[in-house]
User: Fold this.
Amino acid sequence: MSAQLLDGNALSKTLKAEIKEDAAAFTTQHGVTPTLAVVRIGADEAAAGYARAIEKNCKSVGVAYQAHALGEATTQEEAAALVRRLSSDPLVHGVMILEPIAPGLQLDVLIDLIDPVKDVDGVHPVNAGRLLANRPPFMIPATPAGGLRMLEEAGVSFQGKRAVVVGRSEIVGKPMALLLLHRHCTVTIAHSRTVDLPGLCRSADILCVAVGRAEMVQGDWIKPGAVVVDFGTNYTEAGLKGDCQQASVAEVASMLTPVPGGTGPMTNAMLMANVLQAAKLAAGQ
Ligand code: NDP
Assistant:
């Protein structure tokens, strides 16, 4: 078998074209452009690069981008004051804090200060709790939202399927597991202490991997015909690699999200969808 590779580039392009139209219509109707405020605290290079990528992403769909960069010596109180100000600014629809932040600051305390309606990263406990309870409206973190959307677009059926999610982070693994549970999959969450991970993965009809270890999952971990979502983004000497060894996994799976060109571009599209959703909620739509 050679798996169908699900094209995240193409789907994100289609979605972003729709978001761009929607954002323009919103701007015309309300006289205000959907706006994302991005907070960066400290000198981390990866966070700076991520901020540039988000700015480009915003521009591509007509979302206004506000950069708020605080220095390495910022105090918790100064960072909190900024997050509070953005959360209460009616002209800001989405607020996100880029990781990592300067050492010594408490990220969780800052996240708690984001207005849940503006939490386009889906990291505020109110959004996490509403997702757990499956009580909309809530913001779904962009990466699992994108992975799920790829499966839906590919016509994957969920009900009664055995799903295994490897990784239990708040931003990818846990929300992906909940999204699959709410679609009536029977879900197991695996992590670094899981015993016989290959055996567990082999039981999955739908396998989602969000670990951060290049090419950890091999073809012989895969149930024949399984659907595999690879969230891994690992920069190696051989280039960008997923958490799955693409060639061997594609031999056994029926569908696979490739890296690059799978869940990565979808994350960009879904983040912009969240900003638009936040703007609409603020406008009472
Ligand atoms: P985290 O580091 O927060 O979580 C990693 C998870 O993997 C943890 O739950 C950890 O277990 C588990 N894990 C680590 N090693 C193993 C192992 N050997 N066997 C089984 N489980 C293991 O990472 P994220 O969730 O933030 O990201 C995961 C991957 O997804 C990364 O490659 C990241 O770059 C990528 N990513 C991709 C995005 C995209 O747009 N496609 C966006 C965000 C992330 P434990 O909890 O026990 O420590």
Notes: The chain has two domains: 27-117, 141-265.
